[in-house]
Design brief:
By secondary structure, the protein is an alpha/beta fold. It has two domains: 143 residues, Response regulator (Rossmann fold, 3-Layer(aba) Sandwich); 133 residues, Rossmann fold, CATH 3.40.50. The chain is built from eleven helices and twelve strands. Helix 9 links the parallel strand 9 and strand 10. The longest helix is centred in the last third of the chain and has 18 residues.
């Protein structure tokens, strides 16, 4: 009887190991990190997948192109248009059917896409960038520590409003890992400061720039006592600045945001936006491409010890916007 029970337990463990959600070699419950080495001489098929077709990604593309030139590889750039979960899933299905060896993806909604990522991770090397899916079987995340970036912006907000105020927050979708972590970081910094800053509105635009601007207009009309507008995604800054300028309330309401779209930088120069937390998308593209090449060629020994590769951020305000913008233009050449 005892032997039968042991055999049954062993069988159950074997089944669990093979199931999605089992504990794998990485040692973390629910995940299996599997590296796929590719035979020498194989022409690699690699892809970099974004979460929309924003201008933000043109900088990442420059990083990809630098890696391509240095390493003699090709990395196909895929931007979902429209930037929806359905379209991102369609791209993943195409890459799978076409036999790609590795992909790096900015995940729109981890819960909805984990199953797709895990299926691909069983066949190819999968990285995430910009927005993570930490519960998936991806090998590493390359990009901003979004929680700490949120903390950095939260500290700037506290400097602007040491006596508190009312704020509204805008983003494509709060379900994205990067949006949620940035917002959580902002709230943490505010809580730690003990400043009373109330979030009176949280608006999603589903990555629609027209809706993004209308959301701002609606909030400005609905909350006459508003003090601050916060944009969490790259296009939110320009949308907020445009709507605020049209309202004539730019001298009373402050704006802070994320990322380095040129209209955002111009709005900082013009005094419409106080500051932005700029990421390093060039590094998203460059480091993702380099690591995919290494994983395919070197196998397990190329796997980074730390699953999160933080590319860092820069606080851009009126005092450093010109220097930052000049450097950005150099990166885009």
């Amino acid at each position: 009887m005892k032997n039968a029970l042991l055999a049954s337990a062993s069988l159950l463990l074997a089944v669990l190991w093979g199931c999605e959600g089992a504990t794998g070699p990485s040692g973390s419950a629910g995940r299996v990190r599997k590296v796929h080495a590719v035979p020498a001489g194989t022409v690699l098929k690699l892809a970099f997948v974004t979460n929309n077709n924003s201008d933000f990604w043109t900088i990442a593309l420059k990083g990809i192109q630098k890696a391509e030139k240095e390493l003699g590889i090709q990395v196909d750039f895929k931007a979902p248009n429209p930037g929806t979960i359905k379209e991102q899933q369609r791209i993943l299905e195409d890459l799978e059917s076409q036999g790609y060896h590795g992909i790096a993806i900015s995940v729109l909604h981890p819960t909805d896409i984990n199953r797709h990522l895990n299926r691909l991770a069983g066949r190819m090397n999968v990285l995430t960038h910009d927005s993570d899916a930490p519960a998936s079987n991806r090998l590493a995340y390359i990009g901003t520590n979004n929680f700490e970036a949120g903390v950095a912006l939260g500290k700037e907000i506290v400097k602007i409003f040491p006596k508190g105020g009312k704020m509204a927050v805008f983003v494509g979708t709060f379900s994205a890992d990067n949006a949620r972590q940035r917002f959580d970081g902002i709230l943490k910094a505010i809580k730690d400061s003990k400043v009373s800053l109330e979030v009176v509105a949280r608006k999603e635009d589903d990555k629609d720039p027209i809706r993004a601007k209308k959301n701002v207009e609606d909030v400005l009309n609905a909350f006459p006592g508003l003090d601050l507008l916060v944009g969490l995604w790259s296009y939110n800054g320009p949308a907020i600045a445009s709507a605020l300028k049209a309202s004539g309330k730019q001298n009373r309401i402050k704006v802070v945001c994320f990322d380095e779209e040129e209209p955002t930088l111009q709005a900082i120069k013009d005094g419409l936006i106080i500051c932005t937390i700029a990421q390093k998308p060039f590094q998203f593209g460059y480091q993702s491409s380099v690591l995919l090449k290494k994983l395919c060629g070197e196998g397990e020994k190329a796997l980074p010890n730390d699953e999160v590769i933080d590319t860092g951020v820069t606080v851009v305000a009126k005092d450093n916007v010109d220097a930052f913008w000049a450097d950005l233009r150099e990166q885009k050449k």
